[in-house]
Amino acid sequence: MMAFDSGSARLADASVSVRDLMLSFGAVQVLKGLNVDVRDGEFLVLLGPSGCGKSTLLNCIAGLLEITDGQIWIKGRNVTWEEPKDRGIGMVFQSYALYPQMTVRGNLSFGLKNQRMPKAEIAERVARAARILQIEPLLDRKPGALSGGQRQRVAIGRALVRDVDVFLFDEPLSNLDAKLRAELRVELKRLHAQLENTMVYVTHDQIEALTLADRIAVMRGGVIQQLAAPLEIYDRPANLFVAGFIGSPAMSMLEGRIAGGRFHVGGQSLALDGYEGDAPGTLGAAILGLRPEHIAVAPEGAEGLAATVDIDEPMGADKLLWTEVEGQKVSVRVPVETSHRRGSRVTLVPAMGKASLFDAGTEARL
Amino acid sequence: MANPATLGAAALSADAIGAGPMSGPRGARPRRRLSRGNVFLYGTLLLVSLYYLLPLWVMVMTSLKGMPEIRMGNIFAPPVEVTFQPWVKAWAEACTGINCDGLSRGFWNSVRILIPSLVISIAVASVNGYALSNWRFRGSETFFAILIVGAFIPYQVMLYPVVILLRELGIYGSITGLVLVHTIFGMPILTLLFRNYFASVPEELFKAARVDGAGFWGIYFKIMLPMSLPIFVVAMIIQVTGIWNDFLFGVVYARPETYPMTVQLNNIVNSVQGVKEYNVNMAATLLTGLVPLVIYFASGKLFVRGIAAGAVKG
Prior knowledge:
The structure holds 2 protein chains of 2 kinds. By secondary structure, chain A is of the alpha+beta class. Chain A has 2 domains: about 15-245, Rossmann fold, CATH 3.40.50; about 250-360, CATH 2.40.50.140. Chain A is built from 8 helices and 20 strands. In chain A, a hairpin with a 2-residue loop joins strand 9 and strand 10 (about 225-230). In chain B, about 70% of the residues lie in helices and about 0% in strands. In chain B, helix 6 packs parallel to helix 9 (about 175-200), helix 6 crosses helix 12 and helix 12 (about 230-245) packs antiparallel against helix 15 (about 280-310). The interface between A and B is medium-sized, with 24 and 16 residues.
């Protein structure tokens, strides 16, 4: 998938289109002229740390927040001034937000009753949603008698019965425990494959983002930092923030400078041959970002960066080896069976084709 | 020297192991019923409840005695001869002014004041609170602040202006006027109560209902109302107690034939002519206090729940 530059070309088949969106609370500007297009049937994840404006953006799309300026288009219709119910969206919330005094059936049919839909059709839609989500045995229970995972299913069902084109998810899995979260994540992906709806999904969990998304929009301070396919974001982060935010264990950052086509860190240097991008011949302050799995460990004296072994963290499938290069920490993914003594000297051989170079001043990728 | 022996014994007999480390304290620690702490605690509770219950005891006992027995003193002693005549007289025969039909007239007046004031004030205040916490509009905070300031203005300041207002509206002295006064004066505290309660309802619930297409009234009746029974009980208790016990508004804004029970009680107890009938006075007072008492007993649990839910969160 190609990297998509937001704000330039308008997609003809955009399902949700946010144009020059501005939102201020009094003097505080939360969103500053934000543009994003979501393709029809796409799973777009809005990813960022808390307070980056991702939930705010979702609430704007839903119509739950009055925007200051700009437009929201859904399915080729300008819905900027329309009520949430008229926008053709379904929404799932972090706290489930089920109506406590209604049964599951009541929760699912509440929206349809408000549309004054005939009873037979309501029953049909509720039955269909319950079948898809496998919550048929729960239909006559109250939300209080359900587990977290079941509640979230019902919440998804409430969006499902509305039979809408666009689903909005506001951190739907954050309240669940780790195991359940992983299960529901897969189910959500299956649901998307089955329904082929457009989904906009807010999360701060990068694993969720990487596993679910067709494209990820990484946000910070109300600005989209990078909007691209998960692998593109992982391999070629657009700036230091994205590089540091995506990936677990995190990318190691080496501070140094570029001179004569080589990256210098302390007294050592590394040839930049094979780097994908235009690294300048010289740059006073640069940062080399290396993912742990893109570094090989060679015996002392080989061509690469000399390093001292600190400790290792076994992670089951492999091991994370912490080393120090010129006083800066670098982590390397190594097979479980290798063993390195603390304090021993090794050589790190980075795969330059997978490395990322950043300008330390602008923090942008070179 | 002793070690090998103990080891050997332990290895040989399972009983020895059981008797050794397991013979000490085990399970929950036993508590003494009659500890010093307990004696102090229950003693204090007993003393305090006696202190509070004694006046009630005196009232009930006095109300069941005839006047000759009362004149003998011994206010704590139970009646030698139980008579319900004072209760009958208080309810149906005691004279206030020209009317001699007892407290019953005041009771029904109070009921006719209480019911509409209660329903209207709670209905309006709950919608107020709901709108102020969920449908914030420009200036809603200011509006709320002005409403709250109302709670701090002494009633005495507003007494006369309200008299003029009611006179101009042509409802001075009528039950309608009194209902209006109670409704308005109950508004600040009730609105605050409901606003805080609705503010504690998760915002996402409200958002979900909006996405589901429910409007202002739809959300109020179908989502908010069914989940706020406790706070309605609290509001009801506050209003029933407040309106039933009100004396000031009753004496100022009503006429003798519309006097609420409290005012009539005062007129019976404080009448200067004739003998002071203590037993009738006691019975009348107990009768007047009965309604709030019944409300408290009937809704105690819900009241506590509502107070806990509504009062904590700002």
